[in-house]
Design a protein that fits this description.
Strand content: 5-15%
Structural class: mainly alpha
Number of domains: 2
Radius of gyration: 18 Å
Membrane topology: Multi-pass membrane protein
Helix content: 55-70%
Family: Belongs to the nucleotide-sugar transporter family. SLC35B subfamily.
Distance between the termini: 6 Å
Shape: extended
Pfam families: UAA (PF08449)
Order of helices and strands: HHHHHEEH
Largest sheet: 2 strands, antiparallel
Keywords: Membrane, Transmembrane, Transmembrane helix, Transport
Subcellular location: Membrane
Length: 125
């Protein structure tokens, strides 16, 4: 799937995060948040489809180089939040154990993170 194909699934992560927050963390959101997620998803999907149509009209141009470079730019920003990342890794390690298979258990939050990544991975390759 090319870079533009990947973008078509990105708005779904807003909906997924909202839904998982409700299911796992038992959060309740205001009607404005639900409406915001729906409108943002609609806007991103509309712009992505319009951009894909424009790029497909240009022979030999995929748009992947700029797309991939744009994802590398924020990486140094993680240095600024390194202590927060370390703190959250510790919190994940301390979460309640979840037995996956008889005799094998792991911290619940790590399981949720891995499950989230694995279920979204097919849409970004």
């Amino acid at each position: 799937m090319n870079g533009l194909g990947k973008e078509r699934f990105l708005p779904g992560s807003l909906i997924a995060n909202l839904t998982l927050g409700m299911i796992i963390l038992k959060k309740r959101y205001s009607i404005e948040k639900y409406l915001s997620v729906i409108l943002i998803t609609f806007g991103i999907a509309t712009c992505t489809i319009a951009t894909a149509t424009d790029v497909e009209a240009q022979p030999g141009h995929t748009g992947n180089a700029l797309y991939d470079f744009g994802h590398a730019l924020p990486l140094p920003g993680f240095l600024l939040v390194g202590s927060s990342i370390y703190k959250h890794v510790s919190l994940f390690n301390e979460s309640a154990p979840l037995e996956i298979i008889s005799g094998f258990s792991m911290p619940k939050m790590w399981f949720y993170l891995i499950a989230n990544v694995l279920t979204q991975y097919p849409f970004v390759i």
